[in-house]
């Protein structure tokens, strides 16, 4: 084999070897269309989400959900009434398909549907909240 052919063959092998594992080697912050489920939307999901939940005996509950890179979350609820009361929770979260599930330190779970960069809080059966107040159960990403 001539030297030029050997060099060309070596370069071709290296080029193909470099492409062999590109399915799993995505740049940080990106998820390919075919691998969206596999990358667990980690970089797209982490951040701060907010909404104001309805409240029967107050002006509303300012709810903030913080999803961290290490699969941990913080959930802060501030009840808007004369005596501002704040409840803080924390725990872990997981993603299966388009459903994000949080589990606090007391093993209580809450599910959210991932929709266009927002999180729709689901009821205890895993169904979307419906009715005239449904829009208040959508957490929008602010950071």
Automatic annotation (TrEMBL):
Q: Which UniProt keywords apply?
A: Signal
**The keyword Transferase appears for this protein:** no
Which organism was this protein described from? Answer: Campylobacter gastrosuis
Q: Which InterPro entries match?
A: Cu-R_lipoprotein_NlpE
Which residue windows are coiled coil?
none
Name of the molecule in the record = Copper resistance protein NlpE
Q: Which Pfam families match?
A: NlpE
According to the record, the signal peptide region is 1-25
């Amino acid at each position: 084999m001539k030297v030029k052919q050997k060099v060309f063959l070596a370069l071709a092998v290296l080029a193909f070897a470099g492409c062999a594992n590109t399915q799993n080697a995505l740049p940080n912050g990106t998820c390919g269309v075919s691998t969206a489920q596999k990358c667990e939307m980690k970089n797209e999901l982490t951040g701060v989400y907010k909404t104001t939940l309805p409240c029967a005996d107050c002006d509303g509950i300012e709810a903030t959900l913080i999803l961290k890179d290490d699969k941990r979350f913080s959930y802060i609820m501030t009840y808007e009434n004369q005596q501002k009361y704040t409840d803080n929770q924390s725990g872990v979260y997981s993603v299966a398909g388009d459903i994000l599930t949080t589990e606090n330190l007391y093993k209580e779970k809450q599910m959210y549907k991932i929709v266009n960069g927002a999180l729709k809080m689901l009821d205890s059966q895993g169904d979307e909240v419906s009715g005239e107040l449904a829009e208040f159960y959508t957490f929008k990403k602010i950071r």
